[in-house]
Automatic annotation (TrEMBL):
Statement: the UniProt record of this protein carries the keyword Membrane: yes
Transmembrane spans: 16-35
Source organism of this protein record: Neoasaia chiangmaiensis
GO biological process: phospholipid transport
InterPro entries: ABC_MlaD, Mce/MlaD, MlaD_Phospholipid_Transporter
Keywords: Membrane, Transmembrane, Transmembrane helix
Annotated ranges, domain Mce/MlaD: 43-121
The organism's place on the tree of life at top rank: Bacteria
Keyword Iron-sulfur in record: no
Name by which UniProt lists this protein: Outer membrane lipid asymmetry maintenance protein MlaD
Amino acid sequence: MSAASGARARPDTLELVTGMLVMGVLIALVVLAMAGRHHKGGDGYPLRAVFSQIDGLDVGADVRLAGITIGHVTSETVDPKDFRARVIFTVRKDVSLPDDSAAIVTSDSLLGGKYIALSPGGSDAMLKPGAVMVQTQGSISLEQLLSKFIFSVTDNLPKSKGTAPKAGDAGP
């Protein structure tokens, strides 16, 4: 009986070590994934923008210029006076934006996350750190667009009562 218990102890130890190794790898992957999501606030200068709505825009979201990530959203708050979303984001120090540039909340794809797209203006004066971008466009809600489309289609359909041509009617 001692030979049987000795043979069983070896596979149990192997399973335990294998399980601990797998758990260690999973924990390391989670740590790496979380570390990749956090962006340092000191990698650029801060700019501010005020939007009517920012549905789906999160802290840490990209700020892009011409499709290239040049910063990240660092803060989101609601102004208690006008109930608009105030967003603070960073822009790389080597990127200077004209003071008439626009900030637009847009999405990667239909199901993708939101980001701020910057559209540079034509002014000779540049935005200074901490400046407020006055030309903004909030996010467009996919649900609102779909509901408008559905209601416009259903409103244009002929009503089922009295609008269908009768069998004996001849067309012009």
